[in-house]
Amino acid sequence: MVPLSAPAVRGVKICGLTEEAGFDACIAHGADWVGFVFFDRSPRCVTPAQARALSGRHAGGPARVGLFVHPDDETLARVLDGVSLDILQIYASFERAAEVYARFGVPVWLSQPVSARADLPVACPAAVERILIEPKPPASASRPGGNAQKLDWGLMQGWTPSFPWMLAGGLTPDNVAQAIEQSGAPAVDVSSGVESAPGLKSPDAIARFIQNARSALFSG
Ligand SMILES: O=C(O)c1ccccc1N[C@@H]1O[C@H](COP(=O)(O)O)[C@@H](O)[C@H]1O
């Protein structure tokens, strides 16, 4: 199955929005995607009503991404009933990602945990619009992402996938340009690195992250 719309390949996603100041900073500084976390073990977890209220502050872009960890159909249906989402970012298998796309018809992004070069995917199923490359979480972690944990960006040198992907994990306003340069990432995703406390975004850090990331992504 072919995704319904052509994805923007390059860009910046700010994930884990919970309140107005953070959301408004994403709009003001030109985020390409904003993420809402629907996973109750996250300090960034929001209800569909909260996500809808934030989304309603601005008509049009950026695209709204809903983040789910091993979601069942009932959870996805309940959230989509409460808030309009443009993309479903899921932690699941390739097979489950294909099922979700077939069932809901909303573009699906799939998170792929990586700790070694051999973990980098060589192909992407047609039902998956983009793959997020993230570090494997520590065994003690209570969630599979959003842990401010960095990947070895050198792992991606010479890896030239033919599908859209995005780098996430431990990015900050100060390291994002170097991460893009070393990994060759066409797009980046951040949560902890633009927060003043878990779940609370810093408008100033969002501004600096987007500015530094866009300079690196669109230079040359
Ligand atoms: O943000 C969370 O709380 C979260 C919970 C469960 C799964 C994924 C989560 N976040 C994702 O992880 C990346 C990297 O986070 P960080 O920048 O290292 O904090 C984040 O962008 C989300 O896509």
UniProtKB/TrEMBL annotation:
Annotated GO MF terms: phosphoribosylanthranilate isomerase activity
Keyword Nucleotidyltransferase part of the UniProt annotation: no
Biochemical pathway: Amino-acid biosynthesis; L-tryptophan biosynthesis; L-tryptophan from chorismate: step 3/5
One Pfam family this sequence matches: PRAI
Signal sequence interval, chain numbering: none
Domain N-(5'phosphoribosyl) anthranilate isomerase (PRAI): 12-212
Keyword Isomerase (UniProt): yes
Keywords associated with the record: Amino-acid biosynthesis, Aromatic amino acid biosynthesis, Isomerase, Tryptophan biosynthesis
Enzyme class: isomerase
Catalytic function, reaction form: N-(5-phospho-beta-D-ribosyl)anthranilate = 1-(2-carboxyphenylamino)-1-deoxy-D-ribulose 5-phosphate
Enzyme nomenclature, EC number: 5.3.1.24
Highest taxon, organism lineage: Bacteria
CDD domains linked: PRAI
HAMAP family: PRAI
Xref: PANTHER family: N-(5'-PHOSPHORIBOSYL)ANTHRANILATE ISOMERASE
Family: Belongs to the TrpF family.
Protein name per Swiss-Prot or TrEMBL: N-(5'-phosphoribosyl)anthranilate isomerase
